[in-house]
């Protein structure tokens, strides 16, 4: 069974220590109640991932663990077969002992767009909301973060992250919790909070922004990346049954509307730092994710539209600061 004991020890003397009042009960309930049919199989695979500490690690320019020279060809083949049990791999890519996991998303491209615009992560405590398999968490660690916590309710993403961590070694201060943000109490503790590719999946986007705000310390930084549409401050697309074949897309604001939402949620210094149309090279099917991908979600006669006729995916990145209380008014 996947254990969270090392995380409890890690936060016992940190700004997150008050989380220990509620977190063990929440995660204990998850361990008892999670009924995903493949979880026992995935946990058995994780228990087979016993390897020497890697001879090289790079989280600053990619996620590379091991040069590939420590394992025999047979051992590498066995490891690759074990990692394939965790398909589909959506966020990455990863290089693990010379095995290239070519994920659906080139998440490194997103990081390259986002990273130049954020406050340096050196010595910061970071929360990644909707972290997927944890690719960006490793990149945050590579940029000097003191401690990175990722949350995502998917058991598969948890197991993918655990696979990478067991190969990399448990000494790294990066942890994945299988929770949604609605399960977190207001912690007011993180220096930086990321929410990338989450907002459009939330039925109440303003509530999501407030939940993100409540995890930040006063003066902390939010990094928000989400789908947007063209338009003015009053433009919001509410798709019908599906958007790009996804049935859980609720609101796509314009960049100007999203700026207004962030200010309404009591963020200041709100800046849109990047807008990018998702390319067919950034999101695609691969042997590690053989299902449908972006090309299948777009109109084959006009890729500027989804198959439903909506504007094709365009992503905006915002940075904003949690407002600090005016001490003169306290």
UniProtKB/TrEMBL annotation:
Q: Give the EC number(s) under which this enzyme is classified.
A: 2.5.1.-
Assembly mode: Homotetramer.
Q: What family does this belong to?
A: Belongs to the class I-like SAM-binding methyltransferase superfamily. CmoB family.
Q: Name one GO biological process term.
A: tRNA wobble uridine modification
PANTHER family documented for this protein = METHYLTRANSFERASE, TRNA U34 CARBOXYMETHYLTRANSFERASE
Entry-linked Gene3D superfamilies: Vaccinia Virus protein VP39
Q: Name one GO molecular function term.
A: transferase activity, transferring alkyl or aryl (other than methyl) groups
Species whose genome carries this gene: Shewanella colwelliana
**What is this protein's name?**
tRNA U34 carboxymethyltransferase
Query: Where does the chain bind carboxy-S-adenosyl-L-methionine?
Result: 91, 105, 110, 130, 152-154, 181-182, 196, 200, 315
């Amino acid at each position: 069974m996947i254990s969270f004991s090392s995380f409890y020890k890690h936060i016992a003397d940190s700004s997150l220590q008050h989380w220990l009042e509620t977190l063990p009960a929440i995660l204990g309930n998850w361990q008892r109640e999670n009924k995903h049919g493949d979880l026992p199989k995935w946990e058995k695979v994780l228990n087979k991932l016993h390897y020497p500490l890697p001879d090289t690690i790079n989280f600053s320019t990619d996620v590379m663990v091991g040069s590939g020279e420590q394992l025999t060809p047979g051992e590498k083949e066995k490891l690759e077969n074990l990692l394939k049990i965790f398909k589909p791999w959506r966020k990455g890519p990863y290089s693990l002992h010379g095995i290239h996991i070519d994920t659906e998303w080139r998440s490194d491209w997103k990081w390259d767009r986002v990273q130049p615009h954020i406050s340096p992560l050196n010595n910061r405590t970071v929360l990644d909301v909707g972290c997927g398999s944890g690719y960006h968490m490793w990149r945050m660690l590579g940029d000097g973060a003191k401690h990175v916590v990722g949350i995502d309710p998917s058991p598969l993403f948890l197991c993918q992250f655990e696979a990478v961590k067991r190969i990399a070694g448990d000494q790294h201060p990066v942890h994945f919790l299988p929770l949604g943000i609605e399960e977190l109490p207001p912690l007011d503790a993180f220096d930086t909070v990321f929410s990338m590719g989450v907002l459009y999946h939330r039925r109440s986007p303003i509530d999501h922004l407030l939940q993100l705000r409540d995890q930040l310390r006063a003066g902390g930084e939010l990094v928000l990346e989400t789908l947007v549409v063209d338009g003015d401050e009053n433009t919001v697309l509410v798709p019908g049954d599906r958007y790009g074949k996804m049935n859980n897309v609720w609101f796509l604001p314009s960049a100007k509307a999203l700026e207004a939402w962030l200010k309404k949620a009591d963020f200041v210094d709100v800046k849109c730092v990047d807008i990018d149309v998702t390319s067919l090279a950034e999101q695609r099917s691969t042997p590690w994710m053989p299902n449908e991908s972006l090309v299948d979600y777009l109109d084959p006669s006009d890729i500027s539209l989804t198959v439903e006729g909506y504007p094709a995916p365009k992503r905006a990145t915002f940075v904003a600061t949690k407002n600090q209380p005016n001490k003169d008014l306290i």
